[in-house]
C-alpha cells in the first residue's frame, strides 16, 4: 500500500512540474506579446511625430512659395498639390497604424488561452512589420518635403553647394548599403544553388525509380526546402533594405537636381552678392552631381538585381515544394505497388499450401477407403464376436471423423 501511495505522489509531483512549465511558457508568451505591443506603440508615436513635422514644413513651404516670385517656383517645378498629396497619404498611413495599435491592444487584453498564445504573438509580429512599413513610407515623404524646404530657403550658392555635398555623401552611403544587401542576397542564392543540387532527383522523377532512390531524394529535397524556409525572412529583409536605401538615394538626387536649378536661377537673377570663386563653386557642384548620379544609378541597378534575386528565391522555393510533392506522391504509389506485390506473394503461398493440403487430403481419403475395405472384411470374419463389433464401431467413428475433416479441407 505504501509503495502505491508513493507512486501516486510521484505522479502528482510530475503533474505539478508540468503545470509549472506551462505557466512559465504562458508568462514568457505574455511578456513577448507585451514587447510587441510596446513596439507598435512606438511606431504609432513615431508616425504622429513625423506627421506633425510634415505639417510644420508644409506651412513653411507655403510661406516661401507666397513670398517667392512665380518664376523661381516654376524653375524648381515645385507642385503644391504633390506635397499636399504626400501629407494626405501620410495621414492615412498614420490612421492605419493607429487602427493596428487598437487591434493589438484588444488582442492582448483578451483572455489568453494556452492554445492561442503563439497565434497572438504571430499576429502581433505581422502588425508590427506592417506598422513599420507604413512608417517607412511616411518617413520617405517627410524627407522629400524637408529637403525641398532646405533647398528653397537657401539663397547663397556656397550654402547650396555645401548642402549638395551632404546629399552626395548620403547617396554614396545609401549606394554602399544597397550593395551590401545585394552581396548578402547573392551569397544566399549561391548557397541555395550549391546546397540544393537536385538535378539528379529532378531527372529521376521522370523515370521509374526504386524505393531507395525515392527515400534519398525525399531526404535531400526536404533538407533543401527547410534551408530555404529558414532563410525566407533574411531574403525579404535584403530586398526591403535595398529598396528603401535605393528610394532614399533617388530622392536625394532629385534634391540635388533642384539645388542645381536653384543655383542656375540665382546666377541668372544675380541674387547672390557673394560671387567670389564662382567658377570653382560651379565646378564643384557639377563634380558632386556627376558622382551622385553615378552612385544613384548604381544603387538602382543593384536594387533591381536584389529584386531579381528575391524572385529567384521564390522560384527555388516553388520548385523544391513541387518536387517534394511529386516524390511524396511517388513514395505513396511505390508503397501501394509494394503492398500489392506482397499481397500477391501471400496469396500464391496460400494457394500452394491449399494445393498441398488437397493432395494430402486425397491421399488420406485413399487410405480411409482402404481401411474401410479392411474393416468390412474383419466384420465378416468376426460377426458374432462382441469385442470385434465394438472395435469395428470405434473404427467406424474414427473414419467418419476423418472424412468430415477431409471434407472441410477439400471445401477450402
From TrEMBL:
Highest taxon of source: Eukaryota
Chain ranges of the NBD94 domain: 1-69
Keywords: Coiled coil
Record Pfam families: NBD94
Coiled-coil spans in chain: 157-195, 282-374
Position of the signal peptide: none
Name the UniProt record assigns to this protein: Reticulocyte binding protein, putative
Originating species: Plasmodium chabaudi chabaudi
Amino acid at each position: 500500500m505504501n509503495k502505491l501511495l508513493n507512486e501516486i505522489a510521484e505522479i502528482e509531483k510530475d503533474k505539478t512540474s508540468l503545470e509549472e512549465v506551462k505557466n512559465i511558457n504562458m508568462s514568457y508568451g505574455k511578456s513577448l506579446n507585451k514587447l510587441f505591443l510596446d513596439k507598435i506603440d512606438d511606431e504609432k508615436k513615431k508616425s504622429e511625430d513625423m506627421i506633425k513635422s510634415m505639417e510644420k514644413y508644409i506651412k513653411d513651404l507655403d510661406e516661401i512659395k507666397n513670398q517667392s516670385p512665380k518664376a523661381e517656383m516654376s524653375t524648381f517645378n515645385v507642385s503644391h498639390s504633390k506635397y499636399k498629396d504626400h501629407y494626405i497619404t501620410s495621414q492615412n498611413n498614420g490612421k492605419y497604424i493607429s487602427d493596428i495599435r487598437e487591434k493589438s491592444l484588444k488582442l492582448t487584453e483578451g483572455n489568453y488561452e494556452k492554445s492561442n498564445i503563439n497565434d497572438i504573438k504571430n499576429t502581433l509580429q505581422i502588425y508590427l512589420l506592417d506598422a513599420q512599413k507604413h512608417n517607412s513610407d511616411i518617413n520617405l515623404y517627410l524627407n522629400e518635403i524637408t529637403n525641398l524646404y532646405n533647398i528653397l530657403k537657401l539663397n547663397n550658392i556656397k550654402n547650396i553647394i555645401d548642402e549638395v555635398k551632404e546629399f552626395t555623401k548620403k547617396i554614396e552611403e545609401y549606394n554602399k548599403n544597397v550593395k551590401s544587401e545585394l552581396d548578402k542576397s547573392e551569397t544566399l542564392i549561391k548557397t541555395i544553388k550549391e546546397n540544393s543540387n537536385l538535378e539528379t532527383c529532378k531527372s529521376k522523377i521522370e523515370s521509374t525509380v526504386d524505393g531507395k532512390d525515392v527515400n534519398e531524394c525525399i531526404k535531400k529535397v526536404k533538407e533543401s526546402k527547410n534551408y530555404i524556409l529558414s532563410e525566407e525572412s533574411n531574403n525579404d529583409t535584403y530586398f526591403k533594405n535595398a529598396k528603401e536605401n535605393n528610394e532614399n538615394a533617388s530622392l536625394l538626387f532629385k534634391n540635388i537636381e533642384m539645388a542645381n536649378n536653384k543655383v542656375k536661377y540665382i546666377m541668372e537673377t544675380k541674387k547672390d552678392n557673394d560671387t567670389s570663386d564662382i567658377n570653382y563653386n560651379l565646378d564643384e557642384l557639377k563634380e558632386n552631381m556627376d558622382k551622385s548620379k553615378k552612385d544613384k544609378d548604381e544603387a538602382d541597378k543593384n536594387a533591381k538585381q536584389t529584386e531579381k534575386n528575391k524572385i529567384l528565391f521564390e522560384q527555388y522555393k516553388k520548385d523544391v515544394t513541387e518536387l517534394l510533392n511529386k516524390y511524396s506522391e511517388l513514395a505513396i504509389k511505390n508503397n501501394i505497388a509494394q503492398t500489392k506485390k506482397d499481397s500477391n506473394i501471400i496469396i500464391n503461398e496460400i494457394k500452394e499450401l491449399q494445393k498441398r493440403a488437397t493432395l494430402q487430403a486425397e491421399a488420406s481419403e485413399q487410405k480411409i477407403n482402404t481401411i474401410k475395405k479392411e474393416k468390412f472384411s474383419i466384420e465378416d470374419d468376426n460377426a458374432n464376436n462382441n469385442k470385434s463389433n465394438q472395435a469395428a464401431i470405434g473404427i467406424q467413428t474414427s473414419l467418419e471423423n476423418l472424412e468430415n475433416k477431409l471434407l472441410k479441407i477439400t471445401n477450402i
